Amino acid sequence: MELYELTAHELMDKLNSGEITSEEITKSYFSRIKEKDNQIKAYISLLEEEALDKAKKVDEDRKLGKKVSKYAGIPIGIKDNICISGSKTTCGSKILENFVAPYNATVIENLNNEDMFFLGKTNMDEFAFGSSTENSAFYPTRNPWDLDRVPGGSSGGSAAAVAANMAPWALGSDTGGSIRQPSSLCGVIGFKPTYGLVSRYGLVAYASSLDQIGTITKDVTDSALLLNLIAGHDEKDSTSMNLEKKDYTLSLVNDVKGMKIGIPKEYIGKGINDEVRESVLSVAKKYEELGATIEECSFEVGKYAIGAYYIMATAEASSNLGRFDGIRYGYRTKQFNNLKDIYRNSRSEGFGAEAKRRIMLGTYVLSAGYYDAYYKKAQKVRTVINKAYNELFEKYDLLLTPVSPITAFKVGEKIDNPLEMYLADICTVPINIGGIPGMSIPCGIDSNGLPISFQLLAKPFGEETIIRAAYTYEKNFNFRENYKPTFKNSK
Amino acid sequence: MSVNKKEIVHLAKLSNLYLSEEEIEKYAKDLTEIIDFASMINSVNTDEINETIAANENFNVFRKDQVIPSMDRNLLLQNAPSQDDGMFRIPKVLN
Questions:
Q1: How confident is the model at residue A491 (pLDDT cuts 50, 70, 90)?
Q2: In which domain, by residue range, is B12 found?
């Protein structure tokens, strides 16, 4: 077995016992990347030199018997909207093509503190606007399970890198499903924590009231280990919550007896592909066999979440993207006579089609005469959705739904129809609106050999319940041992 | 609800974007479709319901009014498309 096939915790065990070195791990990943990434295109930039230097340093420290973190010497992939000081952070956009981050995101500081380091920056839909990674200004990423299909998005590069063994784990961001949906389409574990659990400082903003950094891993143990590092209060993000630090690995318990799990009937009905529904229902059955109580419930207002989401998210995006003016950083047009020209031409030449569409939409719903009808109304619907979640979580420990209504679609299939692309997020956006945690866990493959996943949701800061149930499922059905990506074309 | 080409031109102006005739046409169609779809939220009864403006209950988060080192000026200027004497350089604003 090659080192790149192992999970992060397996690598940590071997590294800490002295069986292998960090340099060997790092070289194994870069040789894998060189072998596979010309097909997958998961990375925008690689940080090979920096990674190898750091690996050698950590190996040296271990050799000298210095006290090092158990995570020391483990590499990771980082979505290209999270700032690493001194490295390019492009957000998948031409407007930030040459932007070198002058500081570290708080999550990057957290990983640095453990002497972890970075394989590279992963591809994404421009500014995280999309569900297929086709909106990257550089190139689309391909799905390792079928090279003619998309990996999902917007964290498609991170999900594809982990699925293709080009990173042991990765960080992504999730505003409406951008961690969970690509994780589902690539057959890996994607975890979006509660809003406020992980600092957003240094994450380039898309929709600030919905954005959350989270993890993409090969198994649930790695999700808990990585969450342990990135969760915590940060003064630099005033929406981060000041709570007692938890050890999420304590929830890696193979037992769901007595747990109450609700299945909202709206998410196993019309609009969900038959094979996806069957697979998710078989997960429910599995949980029942393992001692949990399964009950059908209703989340009727959930169907309006997608409408409210695209109003709120684009409103916030249009405002957040106002900062790109060609003055302080980012692309500046060559064609200008005055300041106004710099603004307009830099933005028009620098932003891609979907970014422009969302800026226009957001400006529309915020403009005089429409503000009350759209933006304010959507915020009221948000209150109704939160209330519905509160009521459901009074009755249930967890909710179980599909992640994506369909498995991976073909490259080019939805790119010309924005509304159809938006519907790919129908099962994932309500969670961001509620600010609650959600995890995507693979549970089977469809007749085309593509991964199907289910989603576990809990009340705010209910990460431990999710981890416990996900771990129990994994212990009883290990997707990774049963199925592997094929790197084939479907044509 | 339809978003016409005139409105698109106005939105582009507000957004500091220049759009080609082709883009104006395309965005008018896209925005009409998306807004029509999103209007589904009008079916939700929100009488007596307040807006939610944030995803959690953090409210008026204060910090101590302390002087701490800020980022290095040269570091922050390294991404500027044009700079001069420690400042961002822009074209003349007043004639």
A1: low
A2: 5-42
User: What is the domain partition of chain A in residue ranges?
Assistant: 3-266+277-298+388-482
DSSP state letters, A441-460:
EEEEE-TTS-EEEEEEE-ST
CA atoms within 13 A on the CB side of B46: 26
From the centroid of its chain, how far is CA A79? 9
- Establish whether A178 is a catalytic residue: yes
Residue B34 belongs to domain with CATH number = 1.10.20
Helix (H) or strand (E) holding A156: helix A156-163
Three-state SS for A6-64 is CCHHHHHHHHHCCCCCHHHHHHHHHHHHHHHHHHHCCEEEECHHHHHHHHHHHHHHHHC
If one counts the domains in chain B, the total is 1
Which residue carries 């910090």 as its tokens?
B63
Nearest alpha-carbon partner for A487 in A46, A160, A78: A160
Only one residue has tokens 């570290």, namely: A104
Nearest to A327 among B8, B90, B92 (CB): B90
Cis peptide before A154 (omega within 30 of 0): yes
For the question of residue A79 being annotated catalytic, the response is yes
How many other C-beta atoms can be found within 10 angstroms of the C-beta atom of residue A16? 16
Which of the four pLDDT bands, split at 50, 70 and 90, describes residue A13? Answer: very high
User: SS3 of A169, please?
Assistant: strand
Whether residue B44 and residue A301 make contact (CB cut-off 8 A), yes or no, is yes
Confidence band for B95, pLDDT divided at 50, 70 and 90: low
Contact A262, A392 (CB under 8 A): yes
| Chain A interface, best mutation among B5, B7, B17, B43, by max A CB count within 10 A | B17
A265 is catalytic: no
- Domain A3-266+277-298+388-482 grouped into CATH 3.90.1300.10: yes
Residue B44: C-alpha distances to residues A224, A228, A304, A369, A382 (Å): 37, 39, 8, 20, 11
pLDDT tens, position by position, A429-441: 999 999 999 999 9
Task: Give the tens place of pLDDT for each residue, A331-356.
Answer: 999 999 999 999 999 999 999 999 99
Q: What is the pLDDT of residues A49-107, one digit of tens each?
A: 999 999 999 999 999 999 999 999 999 999 999 999 999 999 999 999 999 999 999 99
Q: Is the pLDDT score of B2 beyond 90?
A: no
Cβ-proximal residues to A250 (8 Å cutoff; 6+ apart), any chain: A464
> A449 and A147 in contact (C-beta within 8 Å)?
no
ipTM: 0.95
Q: At how many degrees (to 10) do helices A48-63 and A22-40 cross? A: 160
Length of chain A: 491
